[in-house]
Amino acid sequence: MLDNMAKSVFFFIMIFCFVSELSALSPSEVRRIKTINENGKQYFKDKDYSSAVAQFRNALSLNPASNTLKANLAQSLIGEAIFEKNKGNVSKSIALLKEAIGLDDTIADAHIILAACYLEIGDYTGAKGELEIARIFAPGRASIHTMLGEIYFQEGDMENALECWSKTKEQQPYNENIGRKIEQAQREWTLLKNFSTKSAHPFVIMYEPQNEHLVRQAVDICSDAYMEVGKIFNHYPLSRITIIFYAPGQFLDITSAPNSVAGLYDGKIRIKCSERTNDPRQLRKLLFHEYTHVLVKYLTNDECPFWLNEGLAQAVSGPVTDIDLEILANLELENDLFHIKNMGRFAGVTHVLDHELDSSLAVKIAYIKSLITTNYMINTYGMNRCMRLLEELRTRTPIEVAVQKAIGISVEELDSQVMSLISKTKDELLSVLNKQDNSAGDIQQ
Questions:
Q1: pLDDT digits (tens, 9 = 90+) for 306-315
Q2: Please, are residues 100 and 107 in contact by the beta-carbon 8 Å criterion?
Q3: Whole-angstrom Cα distance, residue 267 to residue 46?
Q4: From edge to edge, which strands make up the β-sheet containing 196-200?
Q5: Among residues 187, 183, 195, 185, which one has the least CA distance to residue 148?
Q6: Of 9, 81, 233, 293, whose CB has the highest number of CB atoms within 10 Å?
Q7: CA 93 to CA 79: how far, in whole Å?
Q8: Cβ atoms within 10 A of the Cβ of 139, count?
Q9: What is the per-residue DSSP string for 300-364?
Q10: How many CB atoms lie within 10 A of CB 248?
Q11: What's the predicted TM-score (pTM) here?
Q12: Dist. CA 313–CA 363, nearest whole Å
């Protein structure tokens, strides 16, 4: 009841303010502004934010001093910004939110949504700044603490991440997701608080002293990756990218990844120290691979299908030497299972046991199919088309539609072309092997 009374009082005050703002205008100007304002309100109510923005901009041009019209325009701009963000048009959303904040910088929601946009493009510094401003105007908002906690976590600042997420947990005690985040941050903090840190902008590398020799190499490799991979994708992040070198047991505890996994990216680049990383060429390949995942995530807002994400990372990180006849034969035999339409999130491969296929072999086959498909697209249609594909995915275009728009063929046709290439390659390899066998037989005689 008190809430309704407060709304009624607020509504009366807004009407009074609006009327007083019109007092200096002629009757015809007043009628015109009122009509435009009412049209804008109706568009806003119908969630046609673009039309509402146009109406309120028009009204404000006729009465630039009106705080009511500024407030209406700001709220409409926020509505349109959310609509554009949901379509993946982050740059347009950012521009709309900045315009709204220019009209009224006290609207916490505008700063929060702008922070979310910055997070999508990997601008942690910009996101953190907007959230700190939002916290001034809405200090108790759980979403602010949740997002700040995520930024601190990705930056490796577990102490501040835990502080923020604990505040969220106080407000949302039944939020299981936050509970899991707190547990993970506590586990990492216990481990990482004794790690050393080395910076090479925008990378921050965390490691134990016995792995310093790897880190010295990694600094140079990361600098190369930043420039070389950045040139391929025309993207150079400025925000902090955390890389952590773990002992094998630590890597398993933190990631629960299979023993065959040497590194992964989940918001941080995590590397398992091993004989593989002691080889400078392998370390370079691993860091280039994981850094490619960083850029693909930023460029697609994490909307990239498994096969394209892994295919790009393998294509960029260097040549693959473990494609053999068995892999190609299995790709032909299990074409339905490894069709790219089934590898959006690596879906079909989780059912490999139903197909009597060894799971480790299935993973290897899936990665090879991803690489062959991506290399085929790059070599046949060009990297520009692949970049167009990433842009389509960013706007949440379904992969079937995105491939058609970017490459000019359907997913079915793309997979068919790739399988034809695989079949041809397998036949050529068999021919070479048969010639080798015949030659060996001649020599023995």
A1: 999 999 999 9
A2: yes
A3: 38
A4: 196-200, 203-207, 241-246, 269-272, 263-265
A5: 185
A6: 81
A7: 10
A8: 11
A9: HTT---HHHHHHHHHHHH-------HHHHHHHHHTTTTT-GGG-SSSTGGGGGGGGT--HHHHHH
A10: 11
A11: 0.82
A12: 15
Tell the residue number behind the tokens 């989780």, with chain if given.
350
Report d(CA 377, CA 386) in Å as an integer: 7
Q: Find out whether 248 and 273 touch, Cβ atoms under 8 Å.
A: yes
Neighbours of 444 (CB within 10 A): 6
Q: Is the dihedral of CA 46, 47, 49, 51 positive or negative?
A: negative
Please return the burial class of 14, using the count of CB atoms within 10 Å of its CB with bins 0-12, 13-18 and 19+. middle
What region, left, alpha or beta, does residue 197 occupy, with left being phi > 0 and alpha being psi -120 to 50 degrees?
beta
59 within 8 A of 69, measured Cβ to Cβ: yes
Q: Which of 185-199, 259-273, 313-327 has the lowest mean pLDDT?
A: 313-327
Burial class (CB in 10 A: 0-12, 13-18, 19+), 185: buried
Rounded Cα–Cα distance for residues 112 and 123 (Å): 14
What is the average pLDDT score of the chain? 86
